[in-house]
Amino acid sequence: MTEAYRQQLGERSTEQEVLLAGMWERALQLETDSDMSYALLDPGDTGEDGEWALYVYKGWSGEYPDRYPSFRAYMEEMYRNFHADRASDPRFVNDTTRALDADVERARQEALCGRWETALELLAETQRYGRPSAWGMLRQIQTLSHRGGGDAFGDLVADARYTDELVPVMAAAHLRRHRRGAFVDRFVLGTETDDAVGATADGIFARVRDRSYRYAPGGIFGQAVAEAREAARWGDTDGAWRVIRAALPSWSPPGPDLLAPLGLLADPVLGPVVTPERGRELLATPRAGRPGTAPDPVADLDPPGLRWLTDTPRWNPPHDSYRGLWVEGVEPETLTSLVGEDGGAGPTVPPVRRDPWIHLGAQRRDDLAPWEDRAVVSVGRTGTGWAFGFDMAPRTSPVGNFFVSPAAAAARDGRAVVLWVRRARSGGLLSVFHLSVARHGEELYAFTLRGTDVERSGPVPGALDPERLLDGIGEDAHEQRLLAAVEAEFGLALPRLALTEGILPELTTRSWNRAPRQGEAYAYATVHVGPPTRPGESAAGREAGPATTT
């Protein structure tokens, strides 16, 4: 074996690879009764304590040997495997299994009291011996603390008491492993279940796949979940988490082996609310009537106002444009009648959670005129009483000759504000900033800043005058200064987490452009992408590929 392994060595070989290549001619081979497996002690591979490393080579596997730091470490691992292989046999009981089961029970109590890190250590050891429930409870803690997990919970899945909590999380993890938007119809639980559990799991998977799944536990905690979903549905994710956090002590598991309300993670609205920091806060909060001290609350995640939009590239990549409208004193559903496209549906949850910069907007539809610009906006409400519709990545050029601000239409019953910002593709500096404000169906004032040129209509207040605001400051601060002025004047805000995670419903608006008038010219191009034509074949004689309109 020495020559075979040395042939694989090169300049970039690691120290461990060199040790392994030399091991075959110096190791002490232990006598074993096995199926072509060999135990080899290597005096050339020693630890700080002088112990020889032990290698187990399975000649039938075709794989590298398994390394153990010492003979003792190897025997301890074999001891654990011996117990794990027999863990499913209720007759296999000894002092070790009794001590391990006591540790599993202690881990359960520690977890429910909020001492999840202690529980994690206990379960990590007991699951190596295959103790019943240890693996499933360990994976729950790992999932919520974002240390792995989420796709398997062992035999707990076969217990009907836990199906509604564990299967949705497994289904969501299964769907994340597939290409975004792809239809996935195969879902395997990974453990033997009866027909009733299997049928329930299939139904849950279908709802998670089409985003109609709703986490709905019973009791006081269930009422809090419903309240939190309504808050998060329109963008108040911080408020939603506060409601859930306050109700956690009232949560009660349907069986002894469930440690936390995992079903939250699969809810399309509430799942993104439970960030890694909040998942650990949930684990640290005493639950199910257990005593303990609640942890310090995780800070709110949404910054105030609008200025976070300038925090590139972390929160706004790779946007070079965004636009939105705010309407005072109305509910988000009202935006449908104010600015929604004629005959269009109200705000709907998108079928998949999309990255905010991958925007397949309505302007790509075949039924639209080339000049039309119908925004697909995420809809919600602010804590200051404004409903908003926000387009994180419009694909159209801003504020052109045909642009008509939707502010007047949106301001049927009060005030409305429209904002459209575009940055230069090189350098990210502000290139266009448009603001228009209307009340009771009439535009009060508007301005469009292009570079240093300002186009105005109506009496722009001094607090919003771009020439006054930007006097004497560098170009890199222009966007933030203007956004700060809009914040202060109207109290506008946007929920960062809800927008960047795609939680909010979407609405297609009427066109932000008007039709060209008599004598006005415009141009557009349609590019058909497809295989090249062969000699003697016309373009019309072959199947066209997808079309893109610009």
Describe this structure in words.
The protein has 550 residues and is α+β, with helices and mostly antiparallel strands. The protein contains 16 helices and 14 strands. An eight-stranded antiparallel beta sheet has the order 11-10-9-8-5-7-6-12. The protein has a four-stranded antiparallel beta sheet with strand order 1-2-3-4. Strands 13-14 form a two-stranded antiparallel ribbon. The longest helix has 18 residues, at 95-112. The chain is elongated, with a radius of gyration of 31 Å. The N and C termini lie far apart (64 Å). The model is unreliable at 314-318, 356-363 and 539-550 (pLDDT under 50).
How are the elements arranged and paired?
Layout: H1 2-6, H2 15-23, E1 28-30, E2 37-46, E3 52-58, E4 66-68, H3 71-86, H4 95-112, H5 116-128, H6 134-144, H7 163-176, H8 195-209, H9 219-233, H10 237-247, H11 276-284, E5 321-328, H12 335-339, E6 374-381, E7 386-391, H13 407-410, E8 415-423, E9 430-439, E10 442-450, E11 453-457, H14 466-469, H15 478-490, H16 496-500, E12 506-511, E13 526-528, E14 547-549
Antiparallel strand pairs: 1-2, 2-3, 3-4, 5-7, 5-8, 6-7, 6-12, 8-9, 9-10, 10-11, 13-14
Key terms:
16 helices; disordered C terminus; 30% helix; alpha+beta; 8-stranded antiparallel β-sheet
Strand order of the largest sheet: 11-10-9-8-5-7-6-12
What is the string of helix and strand elements? HHEEEEHHHHHHHHHEHEEHEEEEHHHEEE
Say how many strands there are.
14
Give the strand content: 15-25%
Q: Spans of 5+ residues with little confidence (pLDDT < 50)? A: 314-318, 356-363, 539-550
**Structural class given helices, strands, pairing?**
alpha+beta
Nearest-integer average pLDDT:
88
SS summary, helix count: 16
The rounded distance between the terminal residues' Cα atoms is 64 Å
